[in-house]
Structures are given as structure tokens and as C-alpha cells.
Amino acid sequence: MLLKHRTQDNVDIVELGGRLVMADAAQARSELLAVVRRGTGRLVVDLSDVGFVDSSGLSVLIAAFKAIEERSGKMVLAGLSPEIQALLELTRLNEIFLVFADAERAVEYLVSAE
């Protein structure tokens, strides 16, 4: 699991890569929650380089979403593969997460949502 963090227009962008699965979930959760704690309150999780997500991976995304909601922040997802998009729809998480085609569009949304 690869996790990169950068800030653009006062929006935190976390780029994940590889597979978001049980073996990596604890580390990914810890790193993502650290970004939420010290971040701007606006977060894009870019999954464009993620090939597979299991239920543990979904729990990482949910934990980050809950943590940022507690700070009255916003979190959106970007760059989902068709398989990951289908998983969100199957689990009905698409009703919770806003999804954008890419990180740039997600940042534009969060900047305009102020």
C-alpha cells in the first residue's frame, strides 16, 4: 500500500496505490487518520492507482469519513476504477461518498463548497 499526501488549494489529497486490503488496512487507517487530524478539514482520497479494495479497505475509508465529519470537514473520493465503483454501489456506500473522476475535479468541488 502506497500512501502519498500533498496539499493543493488548502485541500489535502491522499493518493493511495496498490491494494487496499486487510494486510494493509491498519497502516492505511493510521496514516489516513493522521492526515485528517492535522489536515485542512477538506480531503480527497485518490484511488486511481488502487487495483483492489476488500471490506477492510472499505472500513479504512469509512473511518476517515467519520473522523473528518467529526471535525465538520468534507471528504470525497476520486479516480475509482469501474470495479471499485461497483463495490461502492453494491455496499451502498455510493450514497455516502461523493465520487469524482479525478483529484482535480474533486479539489475544485471542495474549494467551491466553502
Automatic annotation (TrEMBL):
Recorded GO MF terms: anti-sigma factor antagonist activity
Q: Which InterPro entries match?
A: Anti-sigma_ant, STAS_dom, STAS_dom_sf
The record places domain STAS at 1-110
Per its UniProt entry, which superkingdom is the organism in? Bacteria
PANTHER family annotated for this entry? ANTI-SIGMA FACTOR ANTAGONIST TM_1081-RELATED, ANTI-SIGMA FACTOR ANTAGONIST TM_1081-RELATED-RELATED
Q: Which family does it belong to?
A: Belongs to the anti-sigma-factor antagonist family.
In its UniProt entry, what is this protein called?
Answer: Anti-sigma factor antagonist
Q: Which organism is it from?
A: Methylococcus capsulatus
The opening ranks of the lineage are: Bacteria, Pseudomonadati, Pseudomonadota, Gammaproteobacteria, Methylococcales
